[in-house]
Design brief:
Strands 1, 2, 3, 4, 5, 6, 7 and 8 form an eight-stranded mixed beta sheet that branches. It is built from eleven helices and eight strands. This is Phospholipase, patatin family.
Length: 287
């Protein structure tokens, strides 16, 4: 396996991350790996499966084939567990039993993998790593993927964390700090997408839900502004040829899509689009 000296940045987006799964599966089939990977939210799950060299694993996690693998809770369980998704299933039973994660390959990899979380106390992004502890690695992915309001806060080393996308949806600045000349970004939304400002009603909901975390609330309220500023910056870098972006060319699936056929189609789009763009990607990496 040849590792390219470059940084790969993976956006989140819940089930929209199935596009990224398709893209990475094609790259893995072509034996293309990067020296540094930064994953956010669903992008963190894609990141660790990429580093562990397990094509198809993230796809199979996101598109369960049987009832035992369904990770969405019903209304009754949502009220009981205070979570829309069965996070224990995704980050414990999946990697240990149903869809085994190759911890040995991951921990022995030369690739530097950073998982983005949002510290609820500071409201700031943290770029976390783990190189030996199976449970802690999955806990980092769980924290990075824990969507506000829909899933519980995750405590790591006695610090509360939530979805990394709240504080740094697409960590391009972090990638630039790594000083790799080449940066590849995989987004999960179409070109031109921008986030809307939170409505006053949703602002009140967040204030009630996270009243103990004022810095987190400020980060959530600023998220659309920071996200849109990042998208504008990415557009500039792409036009100058300083980064290479893969993004959906069709309408993305919904953030909590459940239809298997719809998810499979978006996965295939990620795979086929990356296949079409592969020569351009290699030209960018080698020039």
């Amino acid at each position: 396996m040849t590792i390219k000296k470059a940084t790969l940045v993976l956006e989140g987006g819940a089930t929209r991350g199935i596009f990224t799964s398709g893209a990475l599966d094609y790259l893995m089939e072509r034996d293309l790996y990067f020296s540094d990977v930064i994953g956010v939210s669903a992008g963190s799950c894609n990141a660790v499966d990429y580093v562990s060299r397990q094509p198809g694993r993230t796809r199979d996690c996101m598109i369960p084939t049987d009832k035992e693998g369904k990770y969405y809770y019903g209304i009754r369980d949502f009220v009981k567990e205070k979570s829309l998704m069965n996070m224990d299933l995704i980050f414990d039973k999946y990697p240990k039993e149903l869809l085994p994660f190759d911890f040995e390959t991951y921990f022995n990899s030369e690739i530097n993998c950073q998982i983005v979380t949002t510290n609820c106390l500071t409201g700031k992004a943290e770029y976390m790593t783990e190189d030996s502890d199976n449970d802690r690695l999955m806990k980092l992915c769980r924290a990075s993927s824990s969507m506000p309001l829909l899933t519980p806060i995750v405590n790591i080393d006695n610090v509360p964390y939530l979805d990394g996308g709240l504080a740094d949806s697409v960590p391009i600045r972090r990638a630039q700090q790594m000083e790799n000349e080449k940066i590849v970004v995989i987004l999960t939304k179409n070109q031109g997408y921008r986030k809307s400002v939170l409505s006053p009603t949703m602002q009140r909901v967040y204030k009630r839900a996270y009243k103990s975390y004022p810095n987190l609330i400020r980060t959530i309220f600023r998220r659309s502004f920071e996200y849109n500023k990042t998208m504008n910056y990415l557009d500039q870098l792409e036009k100058r040829g300083e980064i290479f972006i893969l993004r959906p060319q069709v309408k993305p699936v919904s953030r909590l899509e459940r239809n298997k056929e719809t998810l499979h189609a978006f996965y295939e789009h990620g795979y086929k689009y990356t296949e079409r763009k592969f020569d351009d990607l290699m030209e960018y990496l080698e020039k």
